[in-house]
Amino acid sequence: MALQPASGSKDLNPKQVETNHLLTSKLAEVYRKWGYEEISPPRVERLTTLTAGGAIEIEDVVKLVADEPLGLRPEMTASIARAACTRFAQRPRPLRLWASGTVFENRESVEGVHCIEENLVSGVELFGVKDITAEMELLSLLLESMDKLNIDSIYKPTLLIGHTSLIDLILSIIGNENRESIRNYLLTYDRLSLENIKIDKQSKETLLLLQTCRGYPTNVLNTLQKELGKNNITDNLIRLFSMIEPIAKRHGIELQLDPTYLPHFELYTGIVFQLICTGSSAPLVIARGGRYDELVKRCGAKENQAAGLGFVFAIDKIRELINDFMPNKSEKKIIIAYGLNNSLEKALDRQSFWHKKGYTAIVELDPLKNKDEAIYKANEKGIKELEWVS
Q1: Phi and psi angles of residue 327, each rounded to the nearest 5 degrees, phi first
Q2: What percent of the chain has pLDDT over 70?
């Protein structure tokens, strides 16, 4: 019998479980205040749903042995989008949904061994709004959720934002030749290859400038409009940042705009973002999200309703980040013990008395020789309060 959990999975101790519950309940409280309703998408889905029509690589999905092609969800957006376009298709838009649960990704270790990575997540999805107002609501909700989590400024929380159309906008200054290679150089920050590409000098200088153009949103947008001219994408981003900048400042969150940032999953067709904190050894991405109108369209939504965007918090990573700073609960715990001349029934009766008062009360099931032994047992369990049934 194997005594270790499967590679990628983990046993959580009571404190970790309690922290997970605390974090998810805090987030749920915020979601509900904003009018989002909880749903519970299935862990097992058809592979066609899990790969989101090709946006997610099949290699990232944990496949199951079954009569039809099934797998474990690597994220919840595709499942929720399917439900929004089928079961909830007749509900009025905007449709606001939230969910929390476990996701599973197929990973390959540095040794080349495949393993299942299991993570707890919590997030929201907003359907049916194509206007920039949806992004304004979603990012405001994200920032308020961060405030509820009480993540300290020592972790330097930074909201990194990009837009999938900004890459196309940058590439519009060149012809079709070498476009795919240049796109790859921009996304991978490969400056050396970009310097050696054979295009006209002016276009190359603009590409090199925009490849390093990231940071404070207002400065980046000014540079983009200077180099590429005014357009709807940058106009919408100016409107978005003018609203969320003061909110982010109030919550101690730095904003960064990166025109060449795109996420791992190709779900998104519009704004994309991730929330990064500085951990003890490396930066941690504790939340990510974006707009995925094309996914909603593939799920069968009508053209005027083919719009969706959302975000998800990585609960395990947040717990790892802040667990040492979580306050210990000061709730009263009592251990109830009884002697050789007494009975378990009396101890259980006293336990019921304390439970009605709202305290945690634990009964020592076996009779003890004397009160000193009961004190020893209580100390062994780290419980200061003892009731000796005599």
Answers
A1: -70, 140
A2: 92
Q: In what order do the strands lie in the sheet containing 37-38?
A: 37-38, 95-108, 114-127, 308-314, 283-291, 271-278, 158-163, 254-257
Residues 304 and 350 in one domain: no
**Residues above pLDDT 90, as percent of the chain:** 54
Does position 22 have pLDDT exceeding 70, yes or no? yes
Report the pLDDT averaged over residues 175-202. 86
- State whether 194 and 55 are in the same domain: yes
**Element (H or E) spanning 177, and its range?**
none
pLDDT value of position 390: 79
d(CA 94, CA 79): 18
Count how many domains the chain has: 2
Region of 156 please: left (phi>0), alpha (psi -120 to 50) or beta.
Answer: left
Same domain, 337 and 307: no
In this model, does residue 159 exceed pLDDT 80?
yes
In a domain, 201, yes or no: yes
Residue 316 inside a domain? The answer is yes
- The tokens describing 285, both together, are 């991405």
pLDDT at residue 273, rounded to an integer? 96
Q: Which domain holds residue 235?
A: 14-325
Instruction: Report yes or no on 250 lying in a domain.
Output: yes
Beta pairing class for 360-363 and 44-46: unpaired
Asked if residues 122 and 315 have their Cβ atoms less than 8 Å apart, the reply is: yes
**pLDDT tens-digit readout, 207-262:** 999 888 999 999 999 999 999 898 999 999 999 999 999 999 998 999 999 998 98
Mean pLDDT of the chain: 88
pLDDT at 327 over 60: no
Q: Is residue 296 part of a domain?
A: yes
Do 85 and 62 sit in the same domain of this protein?
yes
| CATH number of residue 152's parent domain | 3.30.930.10
Q: Which of 103, 122, 62, 56 is nearest to 294 (CA)?
A: 56
Looking at the chain, which runs of residues are DSSP E strands?
37-38, 44-46, 62-64, 70-72, 95-108, 114-127, 158-163, 254-257, 271-278, 283-291, 308-314, 333-338, 360-363, 385-389
Q: Are residues 258 and 360 in the same domain?
A: no
Residue pair 127/94 in contact (Cβ under 8 Å)? The answer is yes
Say yes or no: 221 and 78 in one domain. yes
3-state secondary structure of 370: coil
pLDDT of res. 54:
67
Residue at a domain's end among 269, 303, 325: 325
